[in-house]
Amino acid sequence: MSNIFDKLKSGAGKVAQEAKEAAQIKKIELDIGGLKKQIETQYHQLGEMTYQSSTNNTPLNPESANIISKVTNLFEQIRLKEEEIKKLNTDIVEPQTPAQAPLPSQKKVCTNCGKENDPNVKFCSECGTKLA
Ligand SMILES: [Zn+2]
């Protein structure tokens, strides 16, 4: 009897864990959206400075160098967050010998939007639906 309960518990635990991961991924995606907005703002300022320097025939505002390094920094933050998502969205796979490795062409097709996802991901990269 206790055996059945243990099984149920571990199954529920896995589901809860996956729901938690999906929520974490959603949150990181929101963060990335915010960072992209910041990049747009910086681009806008940079464009304005370039335009003014060109039309007024004045040297480019030295502040533009700061903006460029800010944008580089923002891109780096996005890259790190995308790596976090990748980690959350990847099943821990036991190391396999090449002979046992599954064919790389075995894509997981999303039941919700039809997107083909890599075989080792848990959630659709397009719509976030849990993949079988
Ligand atoms: Zn999908």
Task: Describe, in plain words, how this protein is organized in 3D.
- This protein is mainly alpha-helical.
- It has 2 domains: 2-88; 94-132, no CATH class.
- Helix content is 61%, strand content 3%.
- The protein has 2 helices and 2 strands, in the order H-H-E-E.
- Strands 1-2 form a two-stranded antiparallel ribbon.
- Helix 1 (2-56) runs antiparallel to helix 2.
Q: Summary?
A:
This protein has helices spanning 2-56, 63-88, and strands at residues 108-109, 116-117. It is mostly helical and 132 residues long. It has a two-stranded antiparallel sheet with strand order 1-2.
Defining traits:
132 residues; mainly alpha; 2 helices; elongated; binds zinc ion
Bound molecules: zinc ion
Spans of at least 5 consecutive residues with low confidence: none
> In order across it, which strands form the biggest sheet?
1-2
User: Could you say which overall geometry the principal axes of the C-alpha atoms support?
Assistant: elongated
Structure annotation, total helices: 2
Helix content: 55-70%
Class derived from helix and strand content = mainly alpha
The overall average pLDDT, rounded, is 87
Order of helices and strands: HHEE
Portion of residues in beta strands equals under 5%
Termini separation comes to 29 Å
- Please state the CA-atom Rg, rounded to the nearest Å: 23 Å
Per DSSP E runs of 2 or more residues, the count of β-strands stands at 2
